């Protein structure tokens, strides 16, 4: 489940440089300068039609090559050909890629090939039954769900292996868009499963950016779904027989009222609470302040809350007790009818508290900048 | 359809210099790039992705060539890129909360001349006539003091080894930092001894402005290639 290079400049004993311990594969470094050119050359000769290699040899050679250098596009392309001809199981490439990423978590070519393989897998009707050898074929929806979960794991691991791993997070977004279809369920699941991860990687801008992507997608989703729901209702009123068909057609993403009713203002508030908690615990991380900015901005612009912007209960704000802690205030203010307009007030109090108690210079600077931004933002 | 900003920039550069740029060639390109501008103000690899210095430069420069830079929110772009200059180091980071890297001396700082020009074209009266909107001296300090390899060549940051890529983009960034504007409005800020002065570089193509002129003139005098295959 992991590969790596063992620093070992000289071959001391007459034995294999391959070391396998507890499911982890190591290669002693001295042999690489012999092995890599050898396999590389063999593959190139094959490509130039100067030397034939049979399918098993090709699979072995490309596998070796890619574990040593996964950015060797030609090797991935040879495997694409093998997959298309039905000789190679695409799931093997997902596994190979996963292995390569343990050592090369950024490898652009690995991620690119992975997306190609996934695209092949979801067009499963065109593939031979190689993929489900011997097993009962899982329902397509479940299979895809399985694939999505696995991809989330692979991305998470790669993101953990290299800070702000742009390629890993890009891939994660791509999977949600193309395999997960950005369903509300998938978005909410991801929101909860990445919460712990970002809390333990507070400088990982990419991780927080991912959460912005999830929240924005939910925002977009609720708007579209509400529109669709209204349209469906109108259609159903006219055509009762159509209704049943539509419900069945919707499949896992049932058009029932509860599912569509994502409490977006609440989500955004939770996000803001998360930011605040982290900012308090880990002073001086610009990412957290950026994320805070944007979340607050979203909570003002989300369609669900924007209609409330007019009815601002200013008196209620001024009377609220400042003796209570930040989280207490949030909960109390939540019960008031106008939620979104209270956000900035709470933020002002938070900033003032940070400025009066923090000792970290960066933290103070971020807090001051945030305050300036709030003032500008509210005046718009 | 999704395209790579790097490819778009290369294609637009080549097409514009060789006088083969047609609207058909880049149909939809500008709109796609603009869609990649995100809430941070910079441009990501695809819509929804994190803003990234390299993609942002390529995207913006491509738009400038296609004369569509106004599809972007220039204000948030300006806000994003200026925040990428590191307070302590003086150099630029590629993305929020990441480390400084010498090559971003060009990818990031190089955005300021482009934005300056775009805002000027829009009639912005608050623009400086002598300086770009970043700390030119601080960037020069970072490059000269931290990014030089004693054996020659330039690099990412102290402790890294030299390579041609970093040598190219550290020098390009240095040139941007030393020269404001052109012609009558040209203003130089050269840190240290006069020998540190580099030739100015063209902010879009990153070759000297004279070469850009010569290339354009040369190809303007050639017949435009026809789309028919050769007989």
From TrEMBL, chain A:
Q: What InterPro entries does this protein map onto?
A: Prenyl_trans_a (IPR002088)
Keyword entries, A-Z: Prenyltransferase, Repeat, Transferase
**Keyword Repeat recorded:** yes
One GO cellular-component annotation of the UniProt record comes to: cytoplasm
State a single Pfam family of this protein: PPTA
- Molecular function terms from GO: protein prenyltransferase activity
The similarity annotation says:
Belongs to the protein prenyltransferase subunit alpha family.
> What's the protein here called?
PTAR1 protein
Which organism encodes this protein?
Chunga burmeisteri (Black-legged seriema)
Q: State which gene encodes it.
A: Ptar1
UniProtKB/TrEMBL annotation, chain B:
Q: Domain Prenyltransferase alpha-alpha toroid: where?
A: 6-207
Cellular-component GO terms for this entry:
protein farnesyltransferase complex
Q: Which residues form a coiled coil?
A: none
Whether Oxidoreductase counts among this entry's keywords is no
Question: Under the GO molecular function aspect, what terms does this record hold?
Answer: metal ion binding; protein farnesyltransferase activity
> What start and end residues bound the annotated signal peptide?
none
| Gene3D superfamilies referenced in this protein's UniProt entry, alphabetically | 1.50.10.20
Cofactor annotation:
Zn(2+)
The record's SUPFAM superfamilies line, in alphabetical order, gives:
Terpenoid cyclases/Protein prenyltransferases
What keywords are assigned to this protein?
Answer: Metal-binding, Prenyltransferase, Repeat, Transferase, Zinc
The record's similarity note reads: Belongs to the protein prenyltransferase subunit beta family.
Report the protein name in the record. Answer: FNTB farnesyltransferase
The record lists the organism as Chunga burmeisteri
Q: What is the lineage of its organism?
A: Eukaryota, Metazoa, Chordata, Craniata, Vertebrata
